[in-house]
Structures are given as structure tokens and as C-alpha cells.
DNA sequence: ATAAAGATACCGTCTGGACGGTTTGTCAAG
DNA sequence: CTTGACAAACCGTCCAGACGGTATCTTTAT
């Protein structure tokens, strides 16, 4: 009842909790699982509490998008920093990050994002912006057909992970990574 | 009122009409646009009529899935029949069919399907079955890393078309096709 | 050949529940 | 004592599906 009133107020932590729960629910129950009721309840917060942090559902999806893209960006940049060769550097980072995703833990969040991306015109355009900026930024080093091809293949693998449609063992994945990296240098 | 009762009964045609309308609606209004009311009304059929053909909403999605996969299969087989070389034949057909999709007309149906695939565990497993059967069937000719890679890249391009995230002109697409086909022979 | 007897293909309304969002209230920290 | 961080009840809408019909087609019995 007044439970949450008594506990220490940690708005930032609650906000993070809400995002995590939303990602988890989308994994367990599909898109339909992301309802304000379900998210708030699973996060141990009332619906009003959720709507205090995110004024409406779209804002919640937006927050999730920001969160995940920020994380993705950070990993890409970290991977790029480790790569001494300029040509195809972005593409190799893309490959590494995509294949480093642990299907059991990381994919769920992205699964939801994909669905939201395709379903929500608003998020779709934000994603397009991200892709557009990146492709301009790395036009000098990563615009070759080989690089594009490699990145598209990453997306395909990622999609396969998402819908668990292909059974790829570690060996097959390693083989793919090797070939893709070769393409990125071409 | 009794209008539709008087018209000739054409169950198969009505069924097809319902599927077409469902695909169209998902294109125009997103997944949320696929409601029993909207589909039935746009197809010029009552809700009861729709539920006569498809006992519930999942059955409607199932029907859509069957319809589209059947069409996809037919095109794949037609493309394979035109290819004299055994090695990588399936993969090349896959490439052709994926790139032959007219983003303006064919994608809408697939867009909805993708969303449903990711969102609906039931359809997801049916898709997995299809992929599994195909990959067994063409294990001899299309199991090389190059072939797999090419097909994954197709999926990536198809995803990009779906969310209109990349601006690919005809030239870039042609270049991709060329490279992918080279990979299929490797 | 034909009429009765289903079977099939629909129609139109109703309901119960879910869901996004609002409002009002309450507690606690600064 | 004001403001931020919640709680809890509530509202309007939308939607899936149930239900009870009616009209047309098909089969069967005569």
C-alpha cells in the first residue's frame, strides 16, 4: 500500500528498472506483453509511477530505444578503438559487436526494439537517422560493396538470432566472422 | 442487410479478399491496423463472415503466413528451374527472389509477416521449420559458408527495405547482387 | 424430377475484458 | 511548505470473440 512511499526514493534506479523490465517482458511475451499495466506491475511500481517517468507509452519505447542505441554505440566505439586499420574499421566493429551479442541475454532487448522499429513509424525514422549519420561518417572507409555486404549479413544473422530460425554452432559463427572480416578489407 | 445474402456465394474469393485486405491494412496502418473489424469491413464482409473463414485472429495470421510462404516458395522454385548450375542454385534463387521484391508492392505483405513472426511464438516456430527443411534439403549444394553468408546478407537487405533504413539505388543493388552471386559459387 | 433435410456461407449485435491515459490523493525530502 | 515521487481508483475506447440468426448451396430420399 504505502510500501513504496516508505522506501528510499531512487528515481533513477526506478527508471532503469522500468526499462529493464520492459525489455524482459517483450522477450517473454512478445510485443503484446509491453503494456503499461504489465511493465509497471513487474517493476514493482504503480501505473501512475510509470507514467510519472514516461508520460506515455511512446515515451517509454523512446527511452528504451535511446538506452539500447547508446549501449550499441559505446560498444562499436570501443571495438573501433582496438582496431589499428582504418579501412573497414567501422564494419569490423559492427561485425564484432553483432556477433558478440549473447543470444541469451542481449538479444531480448533488441528483439523488442526491432519490432517497435518496424511497427512504429516514429522509431523507424530515428533508426534511419542513425544509419544515415553513420554511413556519412564512415563514407571514406566503409562504403565499399564488400563492407556494405558484410554489414547486411550481420543484420541477417542478427535477425536469425532474433527469431531463432537458424541453428548456428560456434564453429559456423566463427567461420562467418572470418569471411565477413575478409570482405571488410576488400 | 440481406444484400450480401443475395449475391452469389464465392467462398474462395472472399477468403482471398480477406487475406489481401489484411496484408494491405498492415501496410497502411501498421500491425495495429489488423483488427477483425477493420479487415472485415474493408473486405466488404461482416465480422461474423470473417470469423467464419478464420475462426480466430491467429488463424487469420496463419492463413496469411501460408499464403505468403507458398508464394515465396513458388518463386524460389521458378528461379531454381532457370538455373543450370547445381552448386549454390538455391542460394542464387534466394538472392533473385529477395531482390526482385518490389519494395512498393511486395514488401507490405512481408512487413506484416515479419512482425507477426517475431511477435508470435507460434509463427516463429513455423518459420524455423521452413528454414530447417530447406537447409536440410539443400545441404549438398548450398551449405558452404559463402552461400550462408549470401543468404544472410539477403535477409539484411530485406530488413533494410522493410524499415527503409538504407537508401540503396539500383546501381548499389546491382552491385550487391553481383557480389552475392559470386559468393554463392564459392 | 423434386422436395425435404441438412450443410455451408454469411449477417449484425452484444459483451467482457484489456489497455492507454487521467485524476486525485499521499508521503517524504529538501 | 513546496515540490518531486509515487499510489490507487477510475474512465473511455477499442477489440476479440460469442451468439443467434438468415440466405443459398448440396445431398438425399422419394
Report on the structure:
The structure is a homodimer of 186-residue chains. Helices cover 77% and strands 0% of the residues of chain A. The first copy, chain A, is mostly helical and 186 residues long. Chain A has 2 domains: 1-55, Orthogonal Bundle (Arc Repressor Mutant, subunit A), CATH 1.10.10; 57-185. In chain A, helix 2 (11-29) crosses helix 3 (36-42), helix 3 (36-42) packs across helix 4 (47-53) and helix 6 (89-100) runs antiparallel to helix 11 (170-185). Chain A is elongated. Chain A starts with a helix and ends with a helix. The A-B interface holds A 30-32, 111, 114-115, 117-121, 124, 127-128, 131-132, 135, 145-146, 148-157, 159-160, 162-167, 172, 175-176, 179-180 and B 30-32, 111, 114-115, 117-121, 124, 127-128, 131-132, 135, 145-146, 148-157, 159-160, 162-167, 172, 175-176, 179-180. Chain B binds a DNA duplex (30 and 30 nucleotides) through helix 1 and helix 4.
Task: Tally the beta strands of chain A.
Answer: 0
Derived structural class of chain A: mainly alpha
Poorly predicted runs of chain A = none
Number of helices of chain A: 11
Note the overall shape of chain A.
elongated
Tell me the series of helices and strands of chain A, N- to C-terminal: HHHHHHHHHHH
The helical percent of chain A reads over 70%
Q: Determine the most extensive contact between two protein chains.
A: A-B, 42 and 42 residues
Rounded Rg of chain A: 19 Å
Q: Assembly state here? A: homodimer
Mean pLDDT, all residues of chain A: 88
Report the sheet with the most strands of chain A, covering strand number, pairing sense and barrel closure.
Answer: none
Number of domains of chain A: 2
Amino acid at each position: 500500500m504505502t510500501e513504496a512511499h516508505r522506501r528510499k526514493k531512487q528515481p533513477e534506479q526506478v527508471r532503469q528498472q522500468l526499462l529493464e523490465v520492459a525489455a524482459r517482458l517483450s522477450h517473454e511475451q512478445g510485443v503484446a506483453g509491453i503494456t503499461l499495466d504489465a511493465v509497471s506491475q513487474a517493476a514493482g511500481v504503480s501505473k501512475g509511477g510509470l507514467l510519472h517517468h514516461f508520460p506515455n507509452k511512446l515515451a517509454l519505447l523512446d527511452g528504451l530505444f535511446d538506452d539500447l542505441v547508446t549501449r550499441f554505440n559505446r560498444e562499436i566505439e570501443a571495438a573501433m578503438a582496438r582496431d589499428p586499420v582504418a579501412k573497414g574499421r567501422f564494419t569490423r566493429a559492427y561485425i564484432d559487436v553483432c556477433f558478440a551479442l549473447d543470444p541469451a541475454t542481449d538479444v531480448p532487448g533488441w528483439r523488442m526494439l526491432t519490432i517497435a522499429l518496424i511497427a512504429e513509424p516514429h522509431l523507424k525514422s530515428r533508426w534511419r537517422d542513425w544509419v544515415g549519420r553513420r554511413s556519412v561518417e564512415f563514407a571514406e572507409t566503409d562504403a565499399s560493396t564488400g563492407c556494405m555486404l558484410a554489414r547486411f549479413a550481420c543484420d541477417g544473422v542478427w535477425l536469425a538470432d532474433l527469431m531463432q530460425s537458424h541453428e548456428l554452432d560456434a564453429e559456423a559463427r566463427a567461420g562467418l566472422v572470418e569471411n565477413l572480416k575478409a570482405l571488410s578489407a576488400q
